[in-house]
Amino acid sequence: MQMTGAQIVIECLKEQGVDTVFGYPGGAILNVYDELYKHSHEIKHVLTSHEQGASHAADGYARATGKAGVCLATSGPGATNLVTGIATAYMDSVPVVALTCNVGVSLLGKDSFQEIDIAGITTPITKHNFIVKDVEKLAETIRRAFRIAQKGRPGPVLVDIPKDVTEKKTEFQPMTMTAELKERYAEGITEDALEYAVKMIQKSQKPYLFVGGGAVISGASQELLEFVEKIQAPVSDSLMGKGAFDGNHRLYTGMLGMHGTKTSNYGVSECDLLIAVGVRFSDRVTGNAKKFAKNAKILQFDIDPAEINKNIVTDAHVVGDIKEILTRLNQRIEQQNHEEWIAQIMEYKEKYPLKYTDNGLTGPYIIEEIYRQTKGAAIIVTEVGQHQMWAAQYYRYSKPRSLITSGGLGTMGYGLGAAIGAQIAKPNQQVVNIAGDGCFRMNMNEIATAVRQKLPLIQVVVNNHVLGMVRQWQTLFYEQHYSATVLNDSVDFVKVAEAMGAVGIRASGREEFREAFAKALACEEPVLIDCIIDSDDKVWPMVAPGRAISEAFDGDDLKSKK
Questions:
Q1: H-type helices in 435-554, by residue range?
Q2: Is residue 466 within 8 Å of 485, Cβ to Cβ?
Q3: Which residues are catalytic?
Q4: Best label site of 25, 64, 170, 199, fewest CB within 10 Å?
Q5: Chain center to CA of 14
């Protein structure tokens, strides 16, 4: 049948099972929006307050579901406003498909009104991108975009469509979804690699697991649990790996790295075999790479061969889907016993627990109270900074896709848009976005989107009137030169929330916060809680930049040196 390019866009979205898109209209993309209007009963469009909010919402939707998130934007500034969100998704391997429209083909390259080479701009931050100048190639390009975004190691893909291509007609042949995407990526999994991995595991007396986002993406939680209990090894995780392994399990030792637990940092530094499961060995995890796990052999499992030996040189590796690798290893490994090693790790857990002051309202207390009241069942979304680290440390994630946060890019302003996407994707789960006041003010306009969508999400602002993490570094490493980090203005977040139609509550003490959060849980509309904490509260433990993770310190260590 003959269809316009705009009609083909919508039909391809329906083929892919897309039920929600996030975006902001404009001149170049009007034809697509006109078709969206006609199909609003099949595809829900969420109008955000800013295109960056749309890209973060598509990201949050994708992380909450594992499906591709979709965002739309018009040409010029509409497209460039997606860039930060696309880069965020790229760094964290999130399947997002961004559809932009550009000026007509005859106007390309002439500095036309709102023309931008968005394909060129996003080349370094997409898994792939396209500009479609021929309507006959549009359907297959969109289908390819979804395949690329979701297959193997996921990532964002951008498709740019000139306006006249959305107007022209061509023959459209509908297609049905295949099972191709569900096939496990197993090309690199060889018998030799598996057998060598088994021998390394059997030989080890002090094995340690380090679990990352690849285990979450793969859906490998059950296989990971079986593997851990079979080899009897303690487990640490990265920020992106939260929930892949139950944070309440006795063998779980907490996050690894700059703000990881001392138990995990010491344990990884002393183990004789480090099994890295779906991680990329970020500098925030390894600290001084030359001193990282220096007593251990490194065994790495990852779907992306580019991650092998990139940051840390391995002794052996298996390339493939994490779920498939663990399934095959579990069939080969006999039960291991490392009671003496586990006992040593348990001593560390008892000696070096996470702790914080008992006085007043603090970031860690806020996170623990959220955990208590949600019974650990909420989807926690965060911005970036101290509150993000507290959320990683003090909320115990028992299931994958329950923490949604910007890891690799560290995007301030990410959380609220992502929370909107997650809440729309999971309407029956409580979504809580935790922000610092510095982050929240970047994209707080999306409160209006949450109100417009009647979402029962809770926005918690951990308000210390400073850029907390940067200030922490200035305190510890820059002689307390608080350059441009003090937010001593008169912004009233409660009034801002109320002005946009949400419920606003302020809490400056523990009892006030307990009551405020209980009230928020009972609401069926967006609620903002402005939590006033001390500007000098810090995230402990910490590893100084350039130091080994075994040199983690906290406030007590600093006091003892004085």
A1: 437-443, 447-452, 468-477, 493-499, 510-522
A2: yes
A3: 51, 113-114, 163, 469
A4: 199
A5: 26
Strand partners, 379: 431
CB-CB contact of 10 with 39 (8 Å): yes
Q: How many whole angstroms separate alpha carbon 336 and alpha carbon 339?
A: 9
**DSSP reduced 3-state for 397:** coil
Q: Write out the two tokens for 321.
A: 């889907």
Q: How far apart are CA 133 and CA 119, in angstroms?
A: 13
Rounded to the nearest 5°, which phi and psi values hold at 62?
-65, -45
Q: What secondary structure letter does DSSP report for 134?
A: -
Identity of the amino acid at 173:
Q
Distances (CA, A) of 227 to 100, 212, 327, 392: 44, 15, 8, 24
Question: 326-381 pLDDT, tens per residue?
Answer: 999 999 999 999 999 999 999 999 999 999 988 899 999 999 999 999 999 999 99
**Residue carrying the six token digits 């022209």:** 168
Query: What is the gyration radius of the CA atoms in the chain, in angstroms?
Result: 24
Residue 207 and residue 233: Cα distance in Å, rounded?
6
Element (H or E) spanning 100, and its range? Answer: strand 96-102
Give the residue from 460, 463, 418, 402 showing the smallest Cα distance to 438.
463
> Can you tell me which residue has the tokens 């061969």?
305
3-state helix, strand, coil in the chain (%, to 5): 45, 20, 40
419-452 burial, b at 16+ Cβ within 10 Å, e below that, comes to bbbbbbbbeeebbbbbbbbbbbbbbbbbbbbbbb
CA neighbor of 230 nearest in space, from 209, 261, 254: 209
Q: Give the contacts of 23 (CB within 8 A, at least 6 positions apart).
A: 29, 45, 46, 47, 48, 51, 54, 71, 72, 73
Angstrom distance (rounded) from CA 558 to CA 562: 7
Confidence of residue 561 (pLDDT cuts 50, 70, 90): confident
Map 30-98 to HEC letters: HHHHHHHHHCCCCCEEEECCCHHHHHHHHHHHHHHHCCCEEEEECCCHHHHCCHHHHHHHHHCCCCEEE
What confidence category does residue 562 fall into, taking pLDDT thresholds of 50, 70 and 90?
Answer: low
Q: Could you tell me the pLDDT band of residue 559, with boundaries at 50, 70 and 90?
A: confident
* Tokens (6 digits) for 22: 């996030």
| CB-based contact 392:31 (threshold 8 Å) | no
Residues 6+ apart with CB under 8 A from 217: 66, 93, 153, 154, 278, 322
pLDDT in tens, 93-139: 999 999 999 999 999 999 999 999 999 999 999 999 999 999 999 99
